[in-house]
Give the backbone structure.
Amino acid sequence: MQETAQHNAIDGGLENPAESRGNWWKRLAGGLKRSSSALGAISDLVTKRLLDEATLEEIHEALIRADLGVETAARITQVLSESRHDARITPDGVKAVVAAEVEKALTEVAHPLVIDPAKKPFVILVTGVNGSGKTTTIGKLAAKLRAEGKSMMLAAGDTFRAAAIEQLKIWAERSGTGFVSRAAGSDPAGLVFDALTAAKEQGTDVLLVDTAGRLQNRTELMEELQKIVRVIKKVDASAPHAVLLVLDATVGQNALSQVEIFKKTVGVTGLVMTKLDGTARGGILVALAAKFALPVHFIGVGESIDDLAPFSARDFGRAIAGLDS
């Protein structure tokens, strides 16, 4: 059943043409509906009262509950206080302020993933905890890069799970991508060494490396991830050229500790936020930006290939505030 679902998601994504911006906006706005609804209490407040001190305090608390973070919540409340204090404001007026401040908070981290053609292969190490969506993200990213004309190789570095190896193999086959794997239980660092060596010999443009999901508080697992990085550097001292941390939006505040530890352990260079369509905690992306200022390359709001898209601060701000595009 699981394999069938994987085939369906992959087949559906790769056989359909890229959706228009309008359709992406619908998916993004729909995916963030639970997050924007979490801010609905603010609309209720401003339709019933003047924007006085008590109302502003409740708005501040509602913004924090929506996982936007203390810093952003304080800034939004301050903007509302300065411009509208002791006056009436419409729900859409509040939403506009929220959208503008979220966009402002995220603009500095909204950066595309840039593949340097001078580095061949360009090595992308993908990390994250169990269930964050690493393997699926790799498959979607591989398909996107293949569509741009880049030659690709996928390394099944999650050797602890046979299902992860099989899932990545399916993605590789469907996207016409090179694939390197070993039997489940094999040494992941050794596999990555073989994959990088082969990619260099073949002149592959991009090597995407999957890794086993690991809890950030398991020291021995994090040390193994460091070993993979050391082995990569033996083949190419400049690699990995990008270290992506895939975060599951549904974990909310726990994402902060994940970023902190993975950043310290393997030098995370960019973030991918998945499962934004399954949570009311989408605001955590704002809190992450405020604390770590790491580039956010992609966000995911579904299972198909087109549901992983480059991150736009403006689109995200308007969608989470519940405004039209």
Remarks:
- Residues 119 and 238 are 9 Å apart (CA to CA).
- The first strand starts at residue 122 and ends at 127.
- Residues 1-19 have pLDDT under 50 and may be disordered.
